[in-house]
Amino acid sequence: MTYVFGVGRRIAPVLLSLAVALTGAIAAQAKDTLTIDLVNEPATLDPQKQWNPDSYYVYRNIFDNMLTRDNDGEIVPQVATEWEQVSDTEVVFTLRDDIVFHDGEKLTADDVVYTIERITDPDFASPQLSQFNKIIKAEAIDDHTVKLTTDGSYPALLAQLVKLSIIPEHVASAMTPEEFNAHPVGSGPYALEAWNRGVDVVLKRNDDYWGDKGPFATVIFKGVPEAATRLANLQAGAADLVVTLDSDLATQLETSGKGKPLAVNTERVAYFALNSQQAPLDNPELRKAIGYAIDREGIVEGVLAGYPKVVDEMLSPAHFGYSGEIDGYAYDPDKAAEMIAAIGPDAEVEMQLATAPVYDQRVVQAVQQMLNDAGMNVSLKMTDMATWLKDQQSSNDVAPMLTFSRWSCACQDPDGIMYPLLHSSSNWSRVSDPEIDALLDEARSELDEEKRADLYRQVNEIAVDNAYILPLYQAAIIYGAAEALEWQPTSNESMFLNRMSWTE
Question: Helix, strand, or coil here: 263?
Fold first, then answer.
């Protein structure tokens, strides 16, 4: 017995060491998988279809873009290593020669040309068409050189190319858009492993990636509509990163000691869209009354704990061209009520306010209450994000009358937000104003930055004067992260997995 006891005493430390090692191995294995809770599952994984945060978070890691931005917001190379403006309308790009798609085929200039021709084809009907339709020609000079020609000078070209994901011609041209959406092939740091509809999207690390490798072998994205559930998952260790927490949940997370909030003021502008092409919102007096009825400061300070910044124009301080000189509608509930009463029964018809789970419902409900307090009859219409996106891109005669939304183009340029929301040619726009159209078209071709900024200031003044669209605030986004996750959120809301890391 003494011998057995002695052996047991000698073995115990060994067993303890093995247990510690095993625990460490399990922990290391767990760190190989990153789980991210989104609000919804992606609407698409085809980067030339819908552009919305839950889709972009995922597919931006599957694809490389023509250009990208660093964490400081500066435009830097990605597929293109350098570029030269050879004339007012022509830019020549030199491409990397070591990029390989996930199926092993090399990325060449032909893929860039195909990508541009696909997204600018009106029959393809990309929701991003208005952001690329100034490009009228793309031609391959050789395997690694591309020349782009624009319809007139286009100062926003580089900013727009930041979000142009390059897709393989040999794959996409042999598939329907639906097939490519289900089985996307890119050249990014991660590749699609599985899209289990209604459950999760699983990405695997591309170990042959030309750039910085992803630190996680597997990344799982899940759609979790309830913010409180996302927070609970993070605190329980079922998620490592969660998106779109409100200020109350951020405070709860900060005091819990089970994770950390990461907040950044984005280029995203929260706004209230009015279908000015349909009665009764074709009456500018009613639109202005709505402007006076919304207490933006109250929403920012009372609901959002001061994270966002009130803006009076359809730009944020993160955009080029933000003036800070526009005066929006000051909160005046008495004036709003008087104007609505003067309009009469037309202002009292029931109107639906379109919303989706991705948006902070405290804000949406506050706006609804403010409008109803002023004498309107506003109800909420909640849909999933895919339906919301489809409704927003409908023709004016069937598009929602009222919409709370937030817009980001991930380009930090006015053309990426003001053109799609205010130009009459855009399927996102509920505005038809020839003066605005002319100014936006001119701004698209103005190379002088001072003159270009002034053109956008004029557009914003007209939009405010006519209450075509009501800017609310520069949105702040609050993420929740595991304590060990290192990541710097950026104003353009890009979730680059290969810019994250675990700390010990």
Answer: strand
The structure tokens listed for 188 are 């990014």
Task: Select the CATH number that applies to the domain covering 63-177 from these four: 3.90.76.10, 3.40.50.1450, 3.40.50.1820, 3.50.50.60.
Answer: 3.90.76.10
Cα–Cα distance between 79 and 308 in angstroms, integer? Answer: 34
* Kind and range of the H or E run holding 452: helix 449-465
- For the cut 60, the answer to whether the pLDDT of residue 267 exceeds it is yes
Cα(497)–Cα(421) distance, integer angstroms: 30
Query: Are residues 99 and 210 in contact, defined by beta-carbon separation less than 8 angstroms?
Result: yes
Q: At what angle do helices 449-465 and 434-445 cross, to 10 degrees?
A: 160
Phi, psi for residue 142 in degrees, rounded to 5:
-155, -170
Distance of CA 479 to the CA centre of its chain: 14
Characterize the bridge pairing of strands 200-205 and 218-223: antiparallel
Distance CA 455, CA 18 (A): 69
pLDDT in tens, 68-93: 999 888 899 999 999 999 999 999 99
Specify the fold of 266-476: Dipeptide-binding Protein; domain 3 (3.10.105)
Put simply, whether the predicted model's pTM sits higher than 0.70 gets the answer yes
CATH number of the 33-44+188-259+482-502 domain: 3.40.190.10
Q: What separation in angstroms does the CA of 158 have from each of 84, 102, 261, 375, 414?
A: 11, 26, 32, 46, 13
Q: Which of 240, 232, 252, 248 is nearest to 216 (CA)?
A: 240
